Amino acid sequence: MSGCCTGGWTTSQAPRAHDAQGRGEGRLGPDSFCDTVEHLLGMPHVTVERWEAVRDAVDLHRRGLDFADAVHWACSRGCERFLTFGDRRLARRARRLGLAPEIVLAR
Prior knowledge:
This protein is mostly helical. Strand 1, helix 4 (88-97) and strand 2 form a beta-alpha-beta unit. It has one domain (29-105). Strands 1-2 form a two-stranded parallel ribbon. The protein is built from 4 helices and 2 strands; from the N terminus they run H-H-H-E-H-E. It has helices at 30-41, 51-62, 67-74, 88-97, and strands spanning 81-84, 102-105. Helices cover 39% and strands 7% of the residues.
């Protein structure tokens, strides 16, 4: 996500989400984070690369996926599989949500 405007947010200033265990530097919970990102997506003076993927990632984050994982998955939609190295929790959540492409653990 990138902001392009005078007085706008840059990536380093944007709110950060907590992961499922409450870790993270930000102070917003998932719902507040998603509301903020959706607000930014609707601002005419903010430019977001691949905004459709970011919008999909916001929806997946609301449904329990870590936001960074959701962005990576949303950007991989044209792929046959999404390969992860040892993130079993991501693979389980993706299966539960019925995501395609399938998230596969590397062996």
